[in-house]
Amino acid sequence: MSTTPGTPHHRPSEPAGNNAYGWKLHPILFLLVVSISLFFAFVVWSTPVMYSSITEWHESWQRVLMSRVCHQQIDRTFVSGGIPLAVCSRCTGIYTALPLVLLVFSFFFTVLVRAKRYIVRIFALASLLVILDGAGNLLHLWQTADLIRLLTGTLWGMAAGLLLIISVTIPRDS
Predict the structure, then answer these.
(1) Do residues 116 and 166 touch, judged by C-beta distance below 8 A?
(2) I want to staple 146 with a disulfide (CB 3.0 to 4.6 A). Which of 70, 89, 161, 164 is the partner?
(3) Is residue 2 part of a domain?
(4) Which of 13 and 123 is assigned the larger pLDDT?
(5) CA angle 146-149-154, nearest 5°?
(6) pLDDT tens digits for 92-135?
(7) Is 10 domain-assigned?
(8) Residues 6+ apart with CB under 8 A from 13
(9) 164 lies in a domain?
(10) Residue 130: which of 98, 167, 159, 100 has the closest Cα?
């Protein structure tokens, strides 16, 4: 199949010469996304190490920062050494899986670009699972165990990481 621009088999949405080497990660965007995700992972896991009492945790900058994105209900939060993590179990899965997927799968981004439509579907399915589980809990239809919340958060974090990788992938000639 010819990939020369202007030929019948060339897809305008793809760069000429689209093969395993036709794509690259945008270095600045990728570094920014990885740095932010690593920062949030640090915030999540640092509270049990940095604080020795629940009072210190309650006043911590980590709890205050993460309260903008997480309900932080103690009964839905993992505890280490008597100190809760900065977010609930579902958000722990998200903020832990996201940087790991970004770092590991960045080496396979050319494969991910080719699987773009599947990654979008996987992200949509993972989002649906999180929404359904959250809505079921909110409406008191069921009570999900922390391990299941961690699993749904991890799946969503993984899917979001894959989506972010293909979002910061650009044609090599750019």
Answers:
(1) yes
(2) 89
(3) no
(4) 123
(5) 125
(6) 999 999 999 999 988 887 788 788 889 999 999 999 999 999 99
(7) no
(8) none
(9) yes
(10) 159
Cα radius of gyration (the chain): 20
Domain count, the chain: 1
Domain membership of residue 49 (yes or no) is yes
Q: Residue 119, SS3? A: helix
Q: How many residues does the chain have?
A: 174
Residues 6 or more apart whose CB falls under 8 angstroms from that of 101 comprise 157, 158, 160, 161, 162, 165
For residue 157, give both structure tokens. Answer: 């974090």
Q: Tell me the torsion sign for CA atoms 72, 76, 80, 82.
A: positive
Alpha-helix runs per DSSP H in 18-145? 27-50, 54-58, 61-66, 89-105, 109-114, 116-138
Q: Determine the Cα–Cα distance for residues 77 and 97; give it in Å rounded to an integer.
A: 17
Q: How far is CA 114 from the centre of its chain?
A: 20
Mean pLDDT of 42-53: 93
Q: What residues pair up with 83 in beta bridges, in sequence order?
A: 80
Residue among 87, 102, 75 at smallest CA distance from 44: 87
Query: Residue 109 sits in which domain range?
Result: 24-171
